[in-house]
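Quick one, tokens below:
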């Protein structure tokens, strides 16, 4: 078992998984690779035009394997330590220990590194030699690379991608410096221990690459390169902590999800680092034909974003800024289809123009535009950050999305309602349908938020926004008291993935508990068991809302079939097909913990909480919850809920909070003071 000797955040195995796709990833906000792989990727660096756009393969000197010639009595282990953000390979013989550590530096985002340490365990004086095997060649199928002069002992190459995403558009540049790697390393006869460190600095400019490499060398000289990474990573983990008393397999899954998701986000206090979005397979994947080619989908905004927002709103803001930077591309998408405003692409790369290789998805899966605006709404309600909207382009995006939805609707004289026709809902087994319940509900919520935002910014509200929001059709069967997926849906038709159940959460579309239950009952048995991993998490959240704890757990358990051993790498589909390192599934899974077990709901006026978790779980503690400039620590047991304000921001000043119980009791919350209550439902902050 890869249980890290009981530590749920350390995954150790004696052998690697059978397929290299299931190897763990080491990633930061700008660089990513799978361990032992001979390529890496840099954020925002795509090659290929339109539907051929994919992450450019950058040759990686980091994919080194260790070998010991002529020795057979060796013990090997491979460990992913999610507490330190480090992968290690250890070889042990009776006389010596060899440790290979690999990591993407969390705070120095243009730097990746590995070290090899040989330590003598006995009193012998014979040399110990380790061979280093590598497939590294400083060439790429996606980059026109040129060697440059060595710099501070490092080799240097630079070049541009071969094909721009759009005709006449920019071709991103890559500059890479790396420590030359010998074929072998030897511990001398008189040495007891020695460590060799190897760096790779990759950036979009020569200056940034050289600066990062020089900084890395200085830290190597001070003996603190790895410890500086561990310190930065540990600070992030402390501020985004989820602790649970429950089954080990569940705790391991949580730590694995946190490691892979937090690896993708910018470090704290890094306003100068442009963020380029999160793709379903992460930055480590996305070469041509692999893991959706590194494109950004609704997966980022619907499945991953809410977790990051709750724990790290600065990173959530960076995600939204990626969408703002691609707004002009979204305007072009709408214009090409004959609509106003901005239609965000089903698959996005650097420009915001549609890069989906298959036209049907790009043309019809338009709910992504509303999904993005819901992320903006959740951010605003959690932070009240008006600067994003007033000064940093957020309002222009909100306005453009509202314009798109109004232009995309058509008036039905028969229904006396607005329709949205010819779409593909989240359930991709159906296309060219009219009035997808989810699509129409997300459009309605987009327009309601645009109206709310305009009023908060003291801007005029176009009458058509309120009119279209009020009169859009969201299909509902009055007889059966459930939401048909679209006009003409017949109960029992197979469904690919979570669709209508998303109306309850995250949309919080108004409905009774009876209708919520009926939607779950209707779609659970017809949803494809082989569908994508995030689906069952939303059924679990729904059953938790209704306090059907065993049914919720049975849905959550389905997710475990998508988690591979020994490094907790998720696969998109339970049969192993689809994307690997499937961050979307991890995001859905974490939402069960952060929003399902806690009952957190972000509303216009408060943060609701209504905890519920299955019998095998006795305690949940979440540290670093962010709300209106406050950092909260929430501890939930079966007997009580304990809320403590651990930190308040000064610039801008945090909003004062109070806990309000269902019976009307009010408890002020001040920094350093804990409020304890019995487990009363429907509480709010």
């Amino acid at each position: 078992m890869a249980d890290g000797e009981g530590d749920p955040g350390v995954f150790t195995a004696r052998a690697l998984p059978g397929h290299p796709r299931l190897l763990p990833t080491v990633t930061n906000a700008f660089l990513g690779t799978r361990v032992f792989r001979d390529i890496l990727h840099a954020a925002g660096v795509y090659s290929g035009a339109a539907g051929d756009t994919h992450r450019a393969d950058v040759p990686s000197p980091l994919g080194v394997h260790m070998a010991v010639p002529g020795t057979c009595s060796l013990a090997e282990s491979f460990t992913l330590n999610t507490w330190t953000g480090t992968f290690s390979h250890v070889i042990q013989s009776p006389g010596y220990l060899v440790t290979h550590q690999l990591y993407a530096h969390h705070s120095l985002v243009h730097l990746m590194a590995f070290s090899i340490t040989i330590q003598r365990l006995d009193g012998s004086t014979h040399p110990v030699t380790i061979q280093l095997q590598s497939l590294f060649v400083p060439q790429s199928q996606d980059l026109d690379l040129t060697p440059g002069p060595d710099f501070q002992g490092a080799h240097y190459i630079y070049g541009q991608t071969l094909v721009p995403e759009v005709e006449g558009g920019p071709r991103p540049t890559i500059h890479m410096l790396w420590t030359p790697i010998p074929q072998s390393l030897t511990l001398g006869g008189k040495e007891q221990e020695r460590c060799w460190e190897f760096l790779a600095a990759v950036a979009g400019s020569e200056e940034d690459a050289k600066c990062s490499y020089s900084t890395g060398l200085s830290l190597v000289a001070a003996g603190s390169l790895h410890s500086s990474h561990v310190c930065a990573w540990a600070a992030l983990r402390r501020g985004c902590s989820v602790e649970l008393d429950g089954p080990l397999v569940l705790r391991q899954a949580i730590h694995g999800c946190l490691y892979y998701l937090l690896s993708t986000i910018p470090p704290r206090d890094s306003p100068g680092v442009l963020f380029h979005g999160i793709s379903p397979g992460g930055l480590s994947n996305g070469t041509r034909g692999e893991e959706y080619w590194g494109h950004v989908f609704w997966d980022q905004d619907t499945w991953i974003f809410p977790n990051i927002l709750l724990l790290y709103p600065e990173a959530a803001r960076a995600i939204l800024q990626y969408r703002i930077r691609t707004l002009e591309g979204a305007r072009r998408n709408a214009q090409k289809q004959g609509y106003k405003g901005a239609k965000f692409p089903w698959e996005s790369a650097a420009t915001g123009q549609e890069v989906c290789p298959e036209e049907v998805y790009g043309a019809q899966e338009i709910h992504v535009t509303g999904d993005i605006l819901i992320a903006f709404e959740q951010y605003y309600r959690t932070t009240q950050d008006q600067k994003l909207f007033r000064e940093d382009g957020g309002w222009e995006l909100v306005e453009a999305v509202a314009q798109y939805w109004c232009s995309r609707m058509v008036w039905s004289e028969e229904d006396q309602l607005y329709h949205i026709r010819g779409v593909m809902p989240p359930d991709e087994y159906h296309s060219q349908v009219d009035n997808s319940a989810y699509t129409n509900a997300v459009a309605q919520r987009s327009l309601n938020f645009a109206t709310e935002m305009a009023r908060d910014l003291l801007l005029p509200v176009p009458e058509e926004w309120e009119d279209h929001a009020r009169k859009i059709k969201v299909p509902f069967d009055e007889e059966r008291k459930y939401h048909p997926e679209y006009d003409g849906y017949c109960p029992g038709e197979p469904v690919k993935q979570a669709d209508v159940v998303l109306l309850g959460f995250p949309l919080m579309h108004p409905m009774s508990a009876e209708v919520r239950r009926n939607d779950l009952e209707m779609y659970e048995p017809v949803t494809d068991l082989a569908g994508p991993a995030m689906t069952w998490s939303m059924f679990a959240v729904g059953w938790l809302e209704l306090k059907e704890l065993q049914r919720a757990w049975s849905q959550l358990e389905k997710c475990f079939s998508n988690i591979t051993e020994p490094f907790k790498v998720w696969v998109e589909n339970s049969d192993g097909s689809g994307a690997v390192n499937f961050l979307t599934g991890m995001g859905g899974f974490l939402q069960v913990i952060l929003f399902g077990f806690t009952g957190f709901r972000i509303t216009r006026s408060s943060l609701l909480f209504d905890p519920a978790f299955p019998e095998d779980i006795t305690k949940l503690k979440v540290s670093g919850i962010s709300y209106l400039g406050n950092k909260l620590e929430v501890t939930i047991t079966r007997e009580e809920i304990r809320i403590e304000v651990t930190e308040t921001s000064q610039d801008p000043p945090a909003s004062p909070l109070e806990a309000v119980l269902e019976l009307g009791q009010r408890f002020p919350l001040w920094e350093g003071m804990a409020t304890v209550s019995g487990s009363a439902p429907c509480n709010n902050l």
